[in-house]
Design a protein that fits this description.
It holds the Pfam family 2TM. The protein is mostly helical and 100 residues long. It is built from 3 helices and no strands. It has one domain. α1 packs antiparallel against α2. It is elongated.
Amino acid sequence: MENDINKNIRFKEVEKRVKKIKGFYIHLMVYVLVNLFVIGMIAIKMNQSEKLWSWNLIQLPLFWGVGLMSHAFTVFLPSIILGRNWEEKKIKELMNKDKP
């Protein structure tokens, strides 16, 4: 019985992790598509005398890219720094601590 509960808890944790990873990849896809569209529109509207690589062209990808990197860090970095089993060990530790 307890093994089934542990499997269910583990499944919920893995499901939550997969949703975070999926959310990051959706964010990445939107980032690429929107920035390609915006850069394309700016390039089409530019005169021949204007420089192609101006601040107006790179500010959106640059600042949004910083946000995308922070999203990537929150999704992928905790498992690198804290290890794969850190959450499971911490949960067991806290559950054992609360036992009467």
